[in-house]
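Before we proceed, please read the two lines closing this message. Let me know whether the structure tokens fit the sequence:

…
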Amino acid sequence: MAVRATISRFPIDADAQESSGIPWGITVTPFASKDENGRAPTYGSDGHLLPRCENCWAYFNTHCELDQWAWTCSLCGTLNGLTSQAIARYSLPQSCPEMMSSFIDLELPVEGLEAAIQARPVYVAAVDLSSSEEFLELTKSALLAALEALGPGSLFGLATFSHKFGLYDVQGPVPVVKNVFIPPEADSSLSMELEDVMPLLQFLAPVDSCKDRIASALETLRPATSWERPSGGGQAIDGVLIGGRGFGVAMESLFNYLGSEYGNTFALARVFAFLSGPPDFGAGQLDTRRYGEQYASKGEDADRALLPEQTPFYKELAAVAVQAGVCVDIFAVTNEYTDLASLKFLSIESGGSLFLYSNTDDSTLPQDMYRMLSRPYAFGCILRLRTSSEFKPGHSFGHFFPDPQYENVQHIICCDSFATYAYDFDFANNTGFSKHTLEPPVIQIAFQYTVVVPHEELAEPGGNSDNRSMFSLKRRLRIRTLQYTASQNISELYDSVDPEVVLSLLVHKVILASLEEGVREGRMLLHDWLVILTAQYNDAYKLVQYKNGNASIAQVDVAFSQCPQLQTLPRLVFALLRNPLLRFHEEGVHPDFRIYLQCLFSALEPSSLHRAVYPVLTSYSTPDKQAYPRHSLSRAALITSGSPIFFLDAFTTLIVFYSSTADPSLPFPPPHDCQLRTTINRLKQERSITPKLMFIRGGQDDATAFENYLIEEQDVDGSGFTSVMGFVSFLEEVTASVVEYMK
């Protein structure tokens, strides 16, 4: 569990928080195997025996005062009695994880229904047949990669959808598909239950014994438009054109189908939905004409009109998925408008991911599929944040849904080791933290989760070989208790800023503003925040002298020269304003790509988000020798460095660029055993998604892809290069706004 704060020394009171201009909050990556400093938790058992505060329900931890019969809660100060069992337990402190570490992971007893569940991992692929041959070939490759990643004992089902819904039985000698026609009406459902079409346990095949037959079934997939053409030349069936994409009905039917065995055959099912375009048939069909209409209309703000969902169908369907124990991952491979603004809820609210690939040619879908299924994940998660009494959580951000009954409790259906969430804080009263108190600010994060683990007896000779008993459920409780200090003055606060975490909080806030008020409002919020921060910094350090009551532009320090921790923030804000997340519709930003970025950015941990917003540019003198670890993203930086090789890490893309003046004797592309390649391979392994790798030789290859990342000479409000320097003119504009603000 990695936890990072925007400021490690908290503001002393609400006035200090307000006058600093820095958002106050944290990011949490709960299922990360180690903390932000690389330390693993102390593991143990008997999590249900951990003492809890009678007042605030916080868990006992190493920051609590303990005497022979009682303990004092480190969060609210309540004195709690100890049971005789706990007294005996704490007489041997070295045997208790909670006495040894403030970061613990304890096993909880699995009782009742959970203990009876056959914990077989279940995976279902739902493939769009209203598509092209190229799309299906890519999907087949992705599913073959998935089969290699799935563990022994997993169950796999193959379904297809178009104007009909198909279920594959791959457990016989030859794959058999049974189809049900999808009614075209927007308010209708399938005419029969899928269980009557094919019993669920006939549909879900053991991967161990059926892998070859699943692969054979994949080879039979064909685009729906080439199916069963009527002899009349392919008009229609009952007046319905063949090739409709009945995605909504397919998903709804599938969730109900799987839900019948939730809590019996499986504890979590994952559905992989492969889409080649917008749902346009039956219930859940989307009207994609609004894209063309808004694009053509000058009277309405397209950036605002295309961000909200046009129907609650998929948000409501996500609730059905959750009730059925289903997590949905959507893989959209399309460059046509698909309205991901409506579809995204199905994935993010069920604990899944949303992937978008603009074409089949250079798609990383198979690699992403393998990577996603190869890493561990937890499910049925509950995340609870508690704070000491002086302050409280404000907003929470991330792909979870709040508990309907309890405050500051979030439910996460499925959580991997990369998934990150954020909180901001407010003071609970006007007093704040006392300057002389012995009770520092404390945060406690509790993360309760379930994992599927292989049975230990499988490793023993003669162990039970029944596939159904190959896995069991483990319920665990991970707790992290962090103690902070309060800053005594503004300098201490500014010196403790973590700019990457500040960026994370800002991204969450501007996404929220964009969704509610439009992209223009999100941009204004970000710009105004930087202006106010700069003004408050200048005021705090008394850098501006007033003449006749007015500040002078020449005196404003927009580079934060007195405070190194703040110096990267103007560049990060500039880069975020240049990012497609906040670029205008008329600049050619596809609305689906914007939604994809919103979903991606709001789940990234701070260091990854930093790279995605402001890429890291490194130079090498040879493929084996790094020259400089970091350059600004400008042509001037390339020219002045004099280095022949540059490596750019933009999170989703990695580019190796050889300058046009590089020595021709330098090997291109870099050899596989060099330092640069080692760095590339390490970064690819550490990513949650597969980055696209490009090699460009300046002067010979098209360098547009690389040059587009050199944003500091680009205008913040436009797409092209300008006669004035982009970042420099941006700082000048911020300076003028600061002077105006300080009047």
